[in-house]
């Protein structure tokens, strides 16, 4: 039971980080200071929490997660199109396990001067939740080869409406907060990765970098947090 309570506490603390981020952004606080405070909180969880994605040996050696420098150009407003075919995808988490998710909406925005798009998915597990994975041209040399996440609401990571716009019309995508799935850190974890339609041809040099340049071993056991 203690492991389950620890997991509940971990998710509560992750949610609190995102609530503080939302409060600060909506209040117009300094973007870099808000981002750095968020990173400090995330580093603290990885270093000390019993539900850290890092194993015991990794936590002993851990100093900080590697991130690209904050880039304001990587914070964009995306138009949300919910009039999409709700196609269901089966995504592999490793050679033995898979899960399904359903396309819920399509986001349209510009990045590095190019018009691009990403899908938001509804995860068909647990109680369901919105999920935005992506892969970009910085993979695998600079960022994790399996791609990264912008949010996974089941796990407490969340998104923001664009300032002054209704939620159903647009949302704020800040790639400076892009983070690795747990399987990027060691082979204990299994993670849903990005479908082909969410693979960007532009490099996203913002957010979390590779934790290590080696790929995780097959045979992962646990669903990522």
What is the percentage of strand-forming residues?
25-35%
Straight-line N-to-C gap: 17 Å
Oligomer: single chain
List the total number of helices. 3
N to C succession of SSEs? HHHEEEEEEEEEE
Biggest sheet architecture: 8 strands, antiparallel
Give the overall average pLDDT: 89
Structural domain count = 1
Low-confidence stretches: 213-223
What global shape is seen?
globular
Helix content: 10-25%
Describe, in plain words, how this protein is organized in 3D.
The two termini are 17 Å apart. A hairpin with a 5-residue loop joins strand 2 and strand 3 (98-111). By secondary structure, the chain is of the alpha+beta class. The chain has one domain. The protein is globular and about 45 Å long. Helix content is 22%, strand content 25%. The strands form two sheets. Strands 1, 2, 3, 4, 5, 6, 7 and 8 form an eight-stranded antiparallel β-sheet that branches. Strands 9-10 form a two-stranded parallel ribbon. The chain has three helices and ten strands, in the order H-H-H-E-E-E-E-E-E-E-E-E-E. Helix 1 (2-26) runs antiparallel to helix 2 (31-48).
């Amino acid at each position: 039971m203690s492991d389950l309570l620890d997991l509940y506490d971990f998710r509560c603390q992750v949610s609190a980080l995102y609530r503080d981020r939302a409060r600060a952004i909506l209040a117009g606080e300094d973007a870099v200071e808000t981002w750095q405070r968020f990173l400090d909180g995330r580093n603290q969880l990885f270093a000390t929490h019993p539900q850290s994605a890092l194993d015991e040996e990794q936590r002993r050696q851990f100093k900080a997660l590697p991130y690209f420098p904050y880039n304001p150009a990587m914070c964009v407003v995306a138009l949300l199109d919910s009039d999409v075919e709700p196609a269901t995808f089966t995504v592999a988490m490793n050679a033995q396990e898979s899960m399904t998710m359903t396309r819920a909406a399509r986001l349209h925005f510009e990045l590095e001067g190019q018009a691009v798009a990403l899908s938001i998915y509804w995860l068909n597990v647990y109680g369901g939740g919105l999920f935005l994975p992506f892969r970009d041209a910085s993979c695998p040399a600079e960022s994790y080869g399996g791609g990264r996440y912008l949010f996974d609401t089941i796990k407490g990571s969340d998104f923001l409406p664009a300032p002054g716009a209704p939620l159903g019309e647009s949302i704020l995508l800040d790639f400076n907060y892009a983070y690795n799935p747990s399987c990027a850190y060691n082979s204990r974890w299994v993670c849903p990765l990005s479908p082909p339609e969410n693979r960007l041809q532009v490099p996203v040099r913002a957010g979390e970098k590779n934790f290590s340049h080696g790929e995780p071993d097959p045979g992962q056991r646990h669903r990522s947090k």
